[in-house]
Amino acid sequence: MKLIIRNAKIIDPTSPFHNQTTDLLIVDGCLQKIEKTLPNPDNVEELQLENLHVSQGWFDSSVSLGEPGFEERETLANGLLVAAKSGFTAVALQPNTNPVIDNQSQINFVLSKAKNAATELYPIGALSKGSEGIDMAEMFDMKNAGAIAFGDYNKSISNANLLKIALQYVQDFDGLLIAFCQDNTLKGHGVVHEGIVSTRLGLKGIPSLAEELQVARNLYLLEYTSGKLHIPTISTQKSVELIKEAKAKGLQVTSSVAVHNLVLTDEKLDDFDTRFKVLPPLRSETDRQALLEGIHDGTIDMITSDHNPIDIEHKKMEFDGAKYGTIGLESAFSSLLTVLPLELVIEKLTAGKATFSIKSHSITEGAAASLSLFNPDGDAIFQKENILSKSKNSAFLGSAIKGKAYGIVNQGQLILNK
Q1: Where would I find the Dihydroorotase catalytic domain in this sequence (predicted)?
Q2: What is the reported pTM?
């Protein structure tokens, strides 16, 4: 592939061209030249888009794609195309498939299916067999096959000894564990955040304590084992404080927050719309503000779409029976710009690579061309035609958004959201 990208403003603090508007010549997947204006005597294909900005490729640390087993929700091929058109050059695939990705052959399967995609797929292996929280999965074998981390998606490890042993075990091969935090005995039959809204609506609540108690326990286990832990999709003010204290003590802990928990609150539940049934639940405005503060001060390391497609049969039903989850790839960037400044959004959409040991590519001459293309300006409403996924369970339908993801250049391919 040969391509000249015209008049692109580069947003990359690691690049000597940061905040400059330049032309970029890409040849065979590499950034060959970056100059103010590039000649084109060979009539190379050119790309010129309105108010075009480019950054290092974005990485999403939590994406569910259904296949294998739940292809009616999403396939790997279409899911990776959706990610590309949404501006993501890499995604971490959750193991919540059927069968669960808990062994080497399942890692090999998803990697083979994603081989030619523009968006790179990095599988997360299950921490426990079948994600049942009883026995450790074959983590070393999965690491050798290409797994970047190990966790049971949206399932907490209630057995503290299992998590302790796993934290000790993966240190032998520098493995990373992901520990979703929720005390299921405190959650009980809760379906939404426990607070004023749940009381008003008569819905069973999930107390913030259900998350915070598990965060505290897991941080104690981390301190005891001197291991390495990622705590995904935190949602409460106290969780932010606990992680901040742990980092101050020098523990090797990172955390993420889902876009919907940064942008939306439980006030959205008034119409009993199951699109807003997510896990962890949408919390209070106080929690949302604390999460935003955690993003600003660096306590929270990365932002994820926590993209989780659910078929209509399991979503469009009474609230208590509906499955948790929202799709989020298509709306992630434009929703974040409504609550955070551009450079911070880019930082938190790329920072996860360091945690998951994925190589970053600075926008410099001679580097690999791994770019996200976007326009940070312009206001709109997120509508059904903006959804590219097979499933349509978006919590952001009808929400105000800002800017637009144009697509990516990655793996020698240009993918645009036309």
Answers
A1: 57-238
A2: 0.96
